[in-house]
Amino acid sequence: MADSQGIDCDERLRVIQGELVQVKQKVPEIPDTKLIAAVVDLVKVEIKKTEHKQINITCLFPSKYPHEPLVVELNSKTLAHKLLMGLGSVCEAETKKLVGQRQVVHMVNFVKTFIDENPLSVCSEEIAFIKKDLLTPEDEIKLKQKTSQIVLKLRQLKYFLTVVLSVPETYPLQQIVVEISEHNLPNFLKVNFQAQAIEIARQCVQPPLKKKPKDPPFAPKPSIQPVCEYLIKDCMRRYPMESCSLCKKQILPPEPTDLSGRQFGIERVYCGHLFHFRCLDKYMKTPPFAAGKFCPVDKKQIFHEKWQTSASVMEQRWAHKQAKQRELEEVMDFME
Predict the structure, then answer these.
(1) What is the percent of the chain where pLDDT is above 70?
(2) Among 220, 170, 205, 168, which Cα is nearest to 50's?
(3) What is the C-alpha separation between 138 and 143, in angstroms, rounded?
(4) Do residues 281 and 314 touch, judged by C-beta distance below 8 A?
(5) How many CB atoms lie within 10 A of CB 282?
């Protein structure tokens, strides 16, 4: 019996039933794939590569199938909605190439290949946030799907920082690997930036050693966005613009090449603020000493390995220095 369009319904049913035999045979052989349903109305397949890389495919047979494209619906509890919408559009274009052929197994393989070849799909929302809210036109971002890496080249004034984020297979249950591959900042800043970024990533996936009684149960969370927010907002947007907290002059020279031979003329204290060495040295060696020395910006006490002398010794040194200065002044007065 044919419908108003001249389509033989019995023939359509025979075609679909024949394809379902193929589906039941071929789909279970595809790695990480599970056949949920295969009936004359639809085929439903689950692809689960990892806990967070899983997607459900529902294939609906239209009234003129196979002489019109299969209807493919995608849903996932872990992958971003925007990613699924984009992939759905790609699938729609792919099914149009298959009109007149069996389409289900091909489309399952097509989506499975996408998941395999795009490991960064698991962090597509974080990547979108970085592009939209963190980067400027001067910055660059490259996605290396084959190696599952995100490469950021960040710029502020004439300074740059290239960061490579390696995303593991089981992300976000496992932390990313952070490496600063290139930069023209003082090396001590690079070391500090990388160490802190690694620690931020670790805290996202490992519970604290000392859990507070009222804290909720620990659950791993994605580490790409917090690491990038730190490296971009707290590091590259800040330090090239930073002024010495004492003399208020720009801490880094306008030309990065001027850092040569001057690296140790800049000091970073525990609270994160930068000082010229000469400014901090004078401040640390000028009274009062008894209560300790505090950062002029956030009023936190300054601790630094280069200034660990006790207050009493500093007082004695200051008094001795002043006495020497008075003696010199007296001599100069006598000579006049």
Answers:
(1) 87
(2) 170
(3) 17
(4) no
(5) 12
331 CB-near residues (< 8 Å, 6+ apart): none
Per-residue confidence band for 315, with pLDDT thresholds at 50, 70 and 90: low
- How far apart, in whole angstroms, are the C-alpha atoms of residue 91 and residue 71? 9
For the chain, the average pLDDT equals 89
DSSP letter string over 135-164?
Answer: --TT-EEEEETTTTEEEEEEEETTEEEEEE
User: pTM, whole model, 2 decimals?
Assistant: 0.84
Least confident of 30-44, 212-226, 266-280: 266-280
* Helices assigned H by DSSP within 27-142: 81-96, 104-117, 124-129
Strand partners, 274: 268
Could you tell me the sign of the dihedral formed by the alpha carbons of 282, 287, 290, 293, in that order? negative
Indicate the pairing of strand 266-268 with strand 274-276: antiparallel
Q: For residues 20 and 292, give the distance between their C-alpha atoms in angstroms, rounded to a whole number.
A: 79
Label each residue of 181-223 as H, E or C: EEECCCHHHHHHHHHHHHHHHHHHHCCCCCCCCCCCCCCCCCC
Q: How far apart are CA 2 and CA 323, in angstroms?
A: 113
Question: Using CA atoms, how far apart are residues 316 and 72, in angstroms rounded to an integer?
Answer: 82
Tokens standing for residue 99: 């009109």
Burial class (CB in 10 A: 0-12, 13-18, 19+), 212: exposed
How do residues 285-300 score in pLDDT, each as one tens digit? Answer: 888 776 778 888 888 8
> Do 200 and 232 form a contact (C-beta atoms < 8 A)?
no
